[in-house]
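COMPLEX REQUEST
Ligand: succinic acid
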Amino acid sequence: MADGAAANIIQVRPEPSGFGAEVTGVDLSRPLPPAALAAIREAWSAHAVLSFPDQPLTLEQLEAFTLQVGPFGADPFIAPMPGHPNVLELRREPDEKAPNFGGGWHSDWSFQPAPPSATILRSEVTPPVGGDTLFADAARAYDDLSDTMKAMLAPLRAIHSATRPYGANGMFARETEKRAMTILSGPEADKTHPHPLVRTHPVTGRKALFVSPTYTVGVEGLTEMETDAILGFLYKHLLQDKYRYRHKWRPGMLLMWDNRCTMHFAEGGYDGHLRVMHRTTVAGDVPV
Ligand code: SIN
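STATUS: Structure written out below.
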C-alpha cells in the first residue's frame, strides 16, 4: 500500500470529552509507513492518550513499535522481562492480596532528570471486572486556572522522588504480602530531582501541571504547610471528573499515553482474577 493510502485508512475517534481517542485501521505489528506514523503522532499530540484495539503483538513487535515512536526510556526499580530488558510485565495473580501496581496518581518516572515522553501498555490478560486505567488531562486543567494562579505557579519548581513507593522505607519495601512482580526498592529511590511545576510540551507548546501525589514530595522555597496547601488544591483541581478519561481494557489492546501532560492511576477491583500487561517507555526531554 502506498504511504499516503496507509495514513488515509487510519481512523481517530476522539472521546466525547476531547481527551483520549481510539485509533483503528492500523496494524502495529508491522513497520509503519512514515505517513501513518505521522498520523499517529498528530493524533497523540491532539488527544494525549491513544488506544489501539485488536493489536495481537508479540513482545518483539511491541519493542519494534516502541522504537518507531522513539528510543526506549530507562525503567528503574522493577525487574524487566527475561530476555527483554526494556519490557516490564505488570502482572497480578488471582490470589494476590498486595495493592495493585500503579494504584496512585502519577506521571511515569517523573523523578528522572528526563522523564519518559510516552508509556506504551499492551493488555495480555484482562480481568472480567475492574482493572481500568484512569487518566487526568493536566494541560486542560492548567488552561482553566485563573491568570493570577498561573502567575503564582510560573516560577515554582516541584521536587520529585521515587521515595514513597520505591525508597528504602517506601511502600514496596515495607509490604509483607507476596507480589508477582519483582520490585527493586532501595536508597537510590530516595534521591530527589526538581522540575518546573508547570511544564511546556515540546511538541504542542501547551503548558501543563507537572505534579503528582505519588512522586511530588515538595516545592522549592515553600514550607511544608504551603506545599501541602498548593499541591492539595492542584490535585483537587486536576482530579475533577471533567478532566478524566477512563480506559476500559479488552485483551490485545495497546494504549500509548503522554507523560508530559497527563497523570494516570491503575484502578484495582479485580481481586481473584489474573491481569497481565506489557509495558515499555519512550525516552523524553528535560522538562522546561
Ligand atoms: C502504570 O503504568 O502505572 C500501570 C497502569 C495499569 O496497569 O493500568
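REMARKS: The chain has one domain: 3-282. The radius of gyration is 19 Å.
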